[in-house]
Amino acid sequence: MASRPNGRGGSEAPARLLTATETRMNVEIDSKPATPLLQLRGISKRFTGVRALDRIDLDVRAGELHVLFGENGAGKSTLINVVSGTFPPDEGTFHFGGEEIHHLTPQRAREIGISPVFQEFSLIPSLTVEENLFLGREVTRGGVLHSREMRKRASALIDELGFDLDPAQRIDDLSRAHQQMAEIAKALLGRVRLLILDEPTASLTERETGRLFELIARLKSQNVGLIYVSHRMREIRALADRVTVLRDGRHIRTLDAATSTDGELVELMTGRTIDLLFPTITHQPDKVMVEVENLTLADGSVRDVNFHARSGEITGIAGLVGCGKSELIRAIYGIERTSSGVIRIDDAPYEFPTPRHSLKRGVAYFPANRIAEGLALSRPIRENASMTGLDLPAFARFGVLRQAAERVTIAGIMEQLQLRPPNIERSAGALSGGNRQKVMLGRALTRELTVFLFDEPSVGIDVGAKLEVYEFMKRLVETGAAVIVVSSELPEVLALSNRLYVMHQGRIAAELTGAERTEQNVLSSFFREHLTAEVA
User: Fold this and answer.
1) Domains and CATH numbers, the chain
2) Model pTM?
3) For a designed S-S bond to 383, which of 44, 77, 143, 379 qualifies (C-beta 3.0 to 4.6 A apart)?
């Protein structure tokens, strides 16, 4: 994406996707035979006690989308941090655009055209969208910010990307999906030759994901190279030219996406054959443990919902991002405020729910956003896993924490969940996504619980970690718990649930059981509700 110095404060010109004619000219001018855009050889990186990257080789060509595929902890995040200048490699060579690069920093990476979009956003919550876009590259005249020019450029880029985003809105007033859009726009503001996307669709709706895919196609046509990190096979099939598999910090193999199979990729990633992605769960529905009648939330995201979940089965809730499914279980737990309706837990009315009271009633909630809501990243694993049980005598007496008992209990729980490495004094922020999810699951084993609310349980974790989460749910259900799973991944929620609710625009569109639980019926519920709303 082209940019020019403006001579009036050192800022770049507004980002602009090239026209078809300009694209053809760009391809003719830039077409150079064989040299990859990015070429890494023997890249290694060590942290205290851990070899995160072990002599990694990676090539990315101009105009290709290259997927990095691997389990959590395989080295993907470390590698893209090396490419974007966040971490210096301990050894190896780094060539970009045919030139050897030394002492790369994030600022230098941006200057030469390397632009990352990380899963953990780099936005400043108290600033507006446009202020975040221009942070560190502000447009000035005579030492004074040229706000009108920045607003104009930000609006032009956002319009061109097709994002529903207000440049003047503060980041902390945006949904996570809109924050994702702002992060992508920020990456594309300057001159981009290599774009890095780390799980970019995790927070986007189907429509927004479609727009992102269209943008990716345009960037590829303009000879922009892309590194794409994803665990979603459908995305890999739709987008990838080549796939590099990493395992335990090592380069296992690079394959052509068109000729590789899903099974081959998963086997290379895990080092073992995985026959079944979803376990066989024996559902034995029994007592109604959660019941909701005519529930409406104060913000209108859920309206007049009737819903129930039984012990001994998984109750699924499907729907697109923004349909109200997450808000529904957050209201049951006590995070979202209700305006009308009734919630019952184990046949007893539950008025004015709060997280603390929910835990005492035997209800646990596992949020989708482990970083913002699930974990205190700077604190040890031990503290994160025990925090929901600190009111219990096993952990505290007369208001004083029993640290020895806490340490023994949490160590046992983490060993049971196969946390690797099993050091409970490490900070939660040092863990991969799958291990972070295990720490949250560990909380459920610190106290007696009967209802488990899972919000997007597999987001940002690899196939191996997903299997462990599913097995955890299986054990809960088969010991008589009521499990509710909210998921935007249709195969996941169909495979796990015994009964399935479909939500659309804040309401229940359908309840499916038995043979009715098919992808076609779920999708037809979306479209039927949409058409009904349009007619009305």
Assistant:
1) 20-124+191-270 (3.40.50.300), 288-535 (3.40.50.300)
2) 0.67
3) 379
